[in-house]
Amino acid sequence: MSERPDSQAANQMWGGRFAAGPDAIMQAINASIGFDQRLYTQDIAGSRAHAAMLAATGILSDSDASAIGEGLLTVLSEIETGQFQFRVELEDIHLNVESRLTEIIGEPGKRLHTGRSRNDQVAVDFRLWVRDQCDQAIAGITGLMRAFLAQAEAGADWVMPGFTHLQTAQPVTWGHHMMAYVEMLARDQSRFQDARKRMNECPLGAAALAGTSFPIDREMTARALGFDRPTANSLDSVSDRDFALEFLAASSICAMHLSRFAEELVIWSSAQFRFVRLSDRWTTGSSIMPQKKNPDAAELLRAKLGRILGATVALFTIMKGLPLTYSKDMQEDKEQVFDAADSLMLGLAAMTGMVGDMTANRDVLAAAASAGFSTATDLADWLVRALDLPFREAHHVTGTLVAMAERKGCDLPDLTLSDMQSVHPGINDAVFAVLGVENSIRSRMSYGGTAPDRVREQVARWKVALG
Ligand code: ARG
Predict the structure, then answer these.
(1) Atom of ligand 1 nearest to the CA of 126
(2) C-alpha count within 13 angstroms, C-beta hemisphere, residue 350
(3) Which one of 13, 39, 93, 122 would you pick to mutate in the ligand 1 pocket, going by the greatest count of ligand atoms within 8 A of its CB?
(4) How far apart are CA 383 and CA 390, in angstroms?
(5) Does any ligand 1 atom lie closer than 6 A to the CB of residue 92?
(6) Which of 93, 113, 119, 127 to mutate to test the pocket of ligand 1 (most atoms within 8 A of CB)?
């Protein structure tokens, strides 16, 4: 003790070779307990599985293991009831739990860390947490898909303009537009399902990096924690964070989709478009302009991708230069993933609410659908079918007719037959049948097309798929 005057201040969990405690700023930069306390459920589940395995393999006595198992449940309830004192000098969730366990049960608590390290401990805790978030994302996406499906079913034959370059392109159906998001979300969901499957291997038992000399049973802990199998390489086990990166990548793509629809809502709910009405529940007023109803939730949703993608880039950057195996840099993974996951879950919930509550202005959509010469392609296609013109020529004739209508300040169906015949003498009365919006959408019967019957088929398929 005499040559270590300050040893009282050294860390009780690893301070054996230390004469002095850390500088206060060292403690501030080093400690993760401020955020990783969020992993307490996973940390305790991992420790309980580990202790049970240590007893089953004869590494610990049954009585020590059951004291540990019980004690960990006490710690769990202390945390859940807010009685637990998190201590920054104990750095992280792992040391906080273990230290409190030892306070409660004494000596057996000190045996828990046999055959493991914080490196495999944090890897297993974090995997469990991210796996759970994959499940939540999958469930949240299903809810949002159902909301889009309900909109699609109601409006399978409501016409609206379809856009390219945000210029009126061709008439489409409301249902078709809604179903486009169902397809995107289904792919998003499958990305989380894929990632979940790949991450579902248990790193516990890799110990610090090389494995352990104790006769542990990694199959047993893997099974107890719901993993498919133990990881096969101890070095990889403690240094891999690609499970978190896959979660972030899947989250980024999903949030990008949410952001695109949010952008459409912002445009559609404006006074200039008036395609939809957002409910009062998802909008706010202005403190100065009484007429305003601002689509704040949609705007914030659009911004969430910024955070989520930011977290993705941050974790890639943290990981990219690290030699094997664990480096403390990796502690910076958690806040990024926590924030991204929170943003995604909130975004999914908000979008589900907004989609469920929004009302399409059918009249406005219909009027917009026929404006902007939206059936020009139908006219060109008719010239090909009825007059056997080559498509390029039909395109040219149609373009000339559009220019004529523009000059006259009318739409294509308002041109007279003789107007049309002045551009191409072969045009006859039958042309007027294809210039209507209703006809246009009904004719788009190709698989995946916008025809209401096609949309209803897709709605039916997805209703079955979602159960
Ligand atoms: N708090 C650490 C983290 O989040 C736990 C692992 C620490 N391991 C170590 N050898 N210091 O990464």
Answers:
(1) 4
(2) 23
(3) 122
(4) 8
(5) yes
(6) 119
- CA-CA distances (angstroms) from residue 463 to 140, 151, 190, 358? 16, 13, 17, 20
Nearest atom, ligand 1, residue 334 CA: 4
Query: How far does residue 372's CA lie from ligand 1's centre (Å)?
Result: 61
How many residues are there in the chain?
467
List all residues 6 or more positions away from 161 whose beta carbon is below 8 Å from its beta carbon: 168, 169, 170, 171, 172, 365, 368, 369, 371, 372, 374
Distance 27 CA to ligand 1 centre (A): 13
The catalytic site residues sit at: 165, 286
**Best substitution site from 33, 95, 331 to test ligand 1's pocket, by max atoms within 8 Å of Cβ?**
331
36 lines ligand 1 (CB under 6 A): yes
Q: Residue-wise pLDDT tens for the chain (467 aa)?
A: 334 444 456 777 777 888 888 889 999 999 999 999 999 999 999 999 999 999 999 999 999 999 999 999 999 999 999 999 999 999 999 999 999 999 999 999 999 999 999 999 999 999 999 999 999 999 999 999 999 999 999 999 999 999 999 999 999 999 999 999 999 999 999 999 999 999 999 999 999 999 999 999 999 999 999 999 999 999 999 999 999 999 999 999 999 999 999 999 999 999 999 999 999 898 888 787 878 789 999 999 999 999 999 999 999 999 999 999 999 999 999 999 999 999 999 999 999 999 999 999 999 999 999 888 989 999 999 999 999 999 999 999 999 999 999 999 999 999 999 999 999 999 999 999 999 899 999 999 999 999 999 999 999 999 999 98
Token pair 């990981």 in the structure block, residue = 319
pTM of the model: 0.93
